[in-house]
Amino acid sequence: MDSSIRQHLQEMIRRYGTSLCGEPKRCKAILNDLCPTAKKEIRLLISALEEDIGNSLLNPPNGIPMEMLLQQLIKRLHEELSLQPEAAHWTVETWALALGVIKQPFSGNIKPNNISNNVITPDPVQKNPSPSFMSKVVETCALALGIIKQSSSNNVITPNPVQKNPSTPVSKTHKKPLIKDRYQDNGDGTVTDVKTNLQWMRCLIGQAWQNGRCHGEAREMSWDEARKLKIRFAGHSDWRLPTIEELRSLVYCSSGEPAYFPNNGERCEGDYQCPTIVQEAFPDAPQWFVWSSSPVAGYTNDAWLVNFGNGNGNYGYRSNDYHVRLVRGGQ
Questions:
Q1: Could you tell me the residue ranges of all domains in the chain?
Q2: According to the model, what pLDDT value does residue 151 have?
Q3: Based on CB atoms within 10 Å of each CB, which residue in 75, 163, 294, 327 is the most buried?
Q4: Which of these, 148, 160, 175, 180, lies nearest to 277 by C-alpha position?
């Protein structure tokens, strides 16, 4: 089974809440976009939702121990959907982990008619979990998290000052080598794309640039909030939300399929690394959606974004909360 789909499912529940359990079609659409190659796993997870496994985990009958309930649900999938015991076990376990009703996977192989003595420690079930309730997802591509430092009053976010080492100032006469023959490190938490001449923040809003890394958790916000941001960073105050064309220019497919820098909205193919961005230039970036400034023609409630889990250009409701990376220059 594809282990990364569990991480994506946990992140989905954290972002959208447990109401996804009552929306199999929506859940399937999101999973298909995030994990296009995990068709078998997605089919199992959605089949379980259609069998009401999610609601059964969220609303357990009074007096039934969690381990017994899990055993009953495994047996239900085995009998109702004719799933192999291992597949039924994986499916129930995956939903239980994503919903936070257990802290760790089952140990051993539980058969539908043989309840294990393994101890499972349940968490209190919350129907509308806050971000602090759900465990932070261990991203497939080594997402590094630190302390969140931000100020969001009046739609103004002030990134942490760049920590420079006075003993090793950036040389003004000898520039650093280009990153991937594309990005010039400006030594101030920004890079310049020498192809487009755009200057980008190396960190997402909510993260702080320090010692060559992006520390903290990227903040999520609605499209309208993202467009109203007023930022002064690296000596400039004209930072803005990128257009969809500008944002797509950041997509990098390490597999070279369909190209290293496809820049056309196509998802990466083959054996590529994620997030689908040059990680040396943009470290500690989550593999998730990032807003552009571009509205969707004919759809007043939607705006364009890029999924840096696979490089795909897509659009979403403006009221949804996604990440933000700012740019200056161009246009």
A1: 4-99, 138-331
A2: 46
A3: 327
A4: 180
